Amino acid sequence: MGLSNYYKVGGSLNANHRTYVVRKADIQIFELLKAREYCFVFNSRQMGKSSLRVQTIKKLRTAGIKCASIDLTIIGSHASAEKWYKGFANQLLSSFEIDDIDFNAWWLQHNSSTEVQRLNLLLESLLLEKFSSQVIIFIDEIDSLIKSKFKDDFFALIRACYNLRAESPKYERLTFCLLGVATPGDLIQERERTPFNIGSSIELTGFSFAEAKDALIPGLAHKVEQPEAVLQDVLNWTAGQPFLTQKLCSLIVQQTEDSYSNVNELVENYIIQNWEAQDEPEHLRTIRDRILRNEQKAGRLLGLYQQVLHSSQGVIIDGSQEQTELRLSGLVVKQDGYLKVYNFIYKAVFNQQWLRQELDKLRPYSEAINNWLNFQQDPSWLLRGKALDEALLWAVGKSLSNLDYEFLQESQKVATELQIEVNQKLASASQKLTKANLTVKQKLADANKKAKYIVWIGGSIAAILILLSVIVGQNQLQTAKEATKLTQVGYNAAQQFQSKQLEGLLLAMKAGEDLKHLVKNQSSLGEYQTITPLSTLLNILVNIHEYNQFDTGQITLNNLAFSPDDKIIASGSDDGTIKLWHQNGTAIATILGHKDKIRSLNFSPNGKIIASASQDGTIKLWQRNGTLIKTLLGHQSWVISAIFSFDNTIVSASKDGTVKLWQSDGTLIQTIPLKSNAITSATISPNGKIIAVGNEEGNIELWKSNGTFIKTIGGHKGWVTSISFSPDGENIASGSDDKTIKLWKADGTSSGIIQGHTARINTVSFSHDGKIIASGSSDQTVKIWQLNGTLINTFIGHSD
Question: Is this entry keyworded Membrane (predicted)?
Fold first, then answer.
């Protein structure tokens, strides 16, 4: 190999390539796999994952270990499940060089089994029976499978192989190593399954000078003076990022001695300037596209990157979903507990100007928020009226930056304050109208007494009035025209309110403001040329449903709880975060602590403690300011719910098939083993005597709180997603993904069914008097029902 092609830019390095740089990860993955530990290498693109795989397989085979390597991009991600599994199995046999069986005949012979069962049978009866030594299967580019419908089954099979080690010794010899741009949470996403929580993570870092010098300096030695210093300059720019390091070394080699000056000029001229056109093989554009590929998440990622870029120290790592996603783009790296821009090349390319341009493309309110930030958050730049409505509509379903949420929340706050001010003015105006009516009645009575007197002087006064009417006629005509116009605007606002409540409110508020200028200093409503704008505005404020809206910024909001005094709202998310809010939408705190999705949030009866249940198998107790009190450990799988009883006893239900009762200080009182472990929902009666637990079979198990089983009631044709007791404890309502609500007596006797939703029921709840039921559904509606199933009202306002 000549020096002109000493370096390789892009693609995997073969097992004998001289520029392969041995890192800490090489030693770590070899030792772990040799010790039969499952491993996964999840990192951004072009960090050397595939080259690491090639080198590791070479060393393992030298040690006598059987290895197979499968690149999932070769199989494709758009095939049917049957074709995909068959392709994977065929690749597996080919990689192990097993050619003494008729694969097509074998596959057809087992066509009565599912694809997962056939693949498992192949692993057990062919591979593990044929090889008595250790077997390692490397699966690369797993991110190509993430969007397929059957990927949860595939990765669940790998997890099952790990669990089978406890039952079958031969599975001790089978090990998997997964590689790709993903996270463990991406592999199994169905909330009812056990997450992919096995194996050891292998972290790929940039080359250090000590690691890189032996492999990379030989290519520079005959081209530049002081090759060690030049390599150090290269690493200063790239921070050891493998692709960029190879590319920059290759650029240096390609320059003649006359044209080469220094590394800085090369970086500026051949990488940074006009980078989108010069980015071959593609690298920087891959990072850009990874960040911008999802419009719903792009704003949040750019906002996070903005924080990283602004801070000299970086952003503290909190394990959030957006931080993980930004790291997988390759743009930032974890360093000493902080997120920092990976290297100076990225910082120069993805700079403030680029960031501003991309944010401006996303936001419909870019000019307003930029001016708000540039002018020390001057309130005059906040959104109002239609602009605020459009911004809030645009923000629905998107994950935005903290600055975006702060800007929108401040805009909403001002709008809310304006609503309150108008409401107060209208209340005052209503009082004045009542007083004016009384005054008019009194004046009419006085007028009757003076009628005769007015008659005999009427002729003289009439002559004077005619003269005055000529003088003021033009002013009255103009005023009358304005009054007519405002009357029509009032009618228009009332009409618009029927379909667009906020826009109707804003139009009525504008008409009221215009009326204020028209009536000037008139203090009596009886003297107003028109009161239609005021009456319309008063009617809207009385009937408007939407009081306030605010966006939590959490990836997928799945739980909401109000404190008993209604002053605090707690929201839980799939990203494991809990956020606390004042009722007006002002943020109190963001709580970090859970490592997986939040499944349940509840306040204690006195409102001082919040209990959160998570798929990480824990229950955490928090003060209402977000301070952790205690973590309750004991469940062996997802905790579906954690509810307070009237006496502050905590009742938790888990997919491990148990219900546990705890004291409020975290002391375990009792464990109740359930009939089914496919738990989906749970609750406790107001008096704390009965526990109701719903499951995937559509059944509800009723238990006494002392652990005595009462009965199982069935009737739903799908999962029981929500259960609620009436305040008196006499009735139970259950919602299901069969789109129905069923009513039961406390003893389990069926008392009715309510139908009307067009998608799964997510939540059901009784009113305080027990006479009304509210249900929320994936059909994007909230419906209010009488107990006999009569629909009272339907509210539409959520995207999910």
Answer: yes
> What's the rounded Cα separation, in Å, for the pair 197 and 616?
10
Is the CB of residue 103 less than 8 Å from the CB of residue 90? yes
Alpha helices, H only, 110-187: 115-121, 128-130, 151-163, 184-187
Which residues sit opposite 522 in a β-bridge? none
pLDDT in tens, 43-70: 999 999 999 999 999 999 999 999 999 9
Unique residue bearing structure tokens 């975290």 = 666
Instruction: Answer whether the bond into residue 281 is a cis peptide, omega within 30°.
Output: yes
Classify domain 24-201 at the CATH class level: alpha beta
Cβ neighbours for 773, distance < 8 A, ≥ 6 positions apart: 724, 733, 741, 754, 764, 765, 766, 767, 784, 785, 786, 787
Please return the burial class of 238, using the count of CB atoms within 10 Å of its CB with bins 0-12, 13-18 and 19+.
buried
Q: What is the pLDDT of residues 391-412, one digit of tens each?
A: 777 776 666 777 887 888 788 7
Is residue 84 within 8 A of residue 110, CB to CB? The reply is: no
Pair of tokens at residue 675: 């009939």
The tens digit of pLDDT for each residue in 147-182 reads 898 999 999 999 999 999 999 999 999 999 999 999
Look-up of token digits 């307003």: 368
pLDDT score of 2: 42
* CA max distance for the chain: 128
DSSP codes joined into one string, 734-771: EEETTSEEEEEETTS-EEEEEE--SS-EEEEEE-TTSS
Tell me which DSSP letter residue 127 carries.
Answer: I
**Predicted confidence (pLDDT) per residue in 245-270, tens digit:** 999 999 998 875 545 568 999 999 99
**559 SS3 class:** strand
Q: What angle do CA 760, 766, 771 make, to 5 degrees?
A: 120
Compute and round to an integer the Cα radius of gyration of the chain.
35
Q: How far is CA 568 from the centre of its chain?
A: 21
Lowest pLDDT segment from 169-183, 557-571, 755-769: 557-571
- Domain ranges, ordered by start, for the chain: 24-201, 410-543, 557-796
What's the pLDDT tens digit per position in 101-139?
899 999 999 999 999 999 999 999 889 999 999 999 999
Rounded to whole angstroms, the Cα distance separating 641 from 723 reads 11
Q: Give the torsion through C-alpha atoms of 435, 438, 444, 445, to 10 deg.
A: -140
**Cα gap 124→117, rounded to integer Å:** 10
Task: Check residue 36 and give its pLDDT.
Answer: 96
Q: What is the 3-state secondary structure (H, E, C) of 585-624?
A: CCEEEEECCCCCCEEEEEECCCCCEEEEEECCCCEEEEEC
CA distance 302 to 354: 10
Task: Please name the residues in contact with 548: beta carbons below 8 A apart, sequence gap of 6 or more.
Answer: 412, 416, 584, 585
Using CA atoms, how far residue 589 sits from 300, 321, 547, 571, 614, in Å, is: 18, 18, 22, 11, 19
β strands within 181-331, DSSP E: 200-201, 315-316
Both tokens of 777, joined, read: 């559904």
